[in-house]
Amino acid sequence: MIENFNRFVLTNAGALLDGLWVTAYVCFWAFLLAIVLGLIACLLRMRLPYARVVAIGYIEFCRATPILVQLLWVNYVWPEVFGFPQTVTGAGVIALALQSSGYLAETFRSGFEGLPKGQREAALAVGMSRWRIVSRIEAPQVGLVVAPLVVNQLAVVVKSSTLVSIIAIPDLMYQGLKIVNQWYEPIEVLTTIALTYFALLFAISRIANYAYVYFQTKFGIASIR
């Protein structure tokens, strides 16, 4: 077992590290885009009545369609529909962001709805614009309240990212399967990949729990879990 590990894992450590970097790159940009899209969808649903139906449709579509279907649709159909080329990495980022944005939109909405309504009424009474109310008063509080759930959604993005290898994005899973297909020895390689993902997700879980405790003790805010 040790000899096989040295042969199949350590000798291919460079390829696995390259794949890990691609995984981190895809997850980072997908998560960042998901936060932006989720916040926009949330605000459209809550603050603009004429855009409410569109926002609800977007959120439900993102949540109700499987990530694999979204991934293949964005990679193969998106360029044909919108008429511009894109890289497979871009397709992976967009697909992961779309699904996560639907869940994050509902997470943000729960945070906004949990705020005292008197804050908005008082701010409007002193002449603050709606944008300043959201950006200066409501958004900072919502960020503290929903932080643990947002971090947990990052874990979902990381787990879902294992599927991007299907469209030939050279992430950690892709590199691992490539090594397995070359040597026909899956145990050592796939075990290494599983432990790597476990380490990443365990760290994210610890960060989420720390954020929950920190915001409760530091700010006296009961974060949503």
Task: Give the SSE layout.
Elements: H1 2-8, H2 13-47, H3 52-64, H4 67-82, H5 88-113, H6 117-125, H7 130-160, H8 172-183, H9 186-219
Helix pairs in contact: 2-3, 2-5, 2-7, 2-8, 3-5, 4-5, 5-7, 6-7, 7-9, 8-9
Transmembrane segments: 20-44, 142-169, 189-215
Family: Belongs to the binding-protein-dependent transport system permease family. HisMQ subfamily.
Main location: membrane
Word description of this protein:
InterPro entries: AA_ABC_transptr_permease_3TM, ArtM/GltK/GlnP/TcyL/YhdX-like, MetI-like, MetI-like_sf. The protein has 225 residues and is mainly alpha-helical. It contains nine helices and no strands. Helix 7 packs antiparallel against helix 9. The relative contact order is 0.15.
